[in-house]
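May I ask you to comment on the folded chain given beneath this request?
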Amino acid sequence: MSAKTIAKLSIPIIPLPYLLTMKLIAGGRKDELDVIELLKVITKDDLRKAKELAKKVRRDKKLQALLKEAVE
């Protein structure tokens, strides 16, 4: 993983699947709500990667539950 640097910003931007995974690991309700909002705008490719990462960190069941909330 490599953070992207955007010319107009002075800080690197973490790719969405990795941000989502970090939020899953943190596990607080605010983090869960952030994940739900991210899931509403995520691309199919990023979602596929996020699912792979969630499985690696054993948060795949949590991701599936939050996916259901995001669709509702």
About this structure: The mean pLDDT is 90. Residues 44-56 form the longest helix (13 residues). Residues 14-71 form one domain.
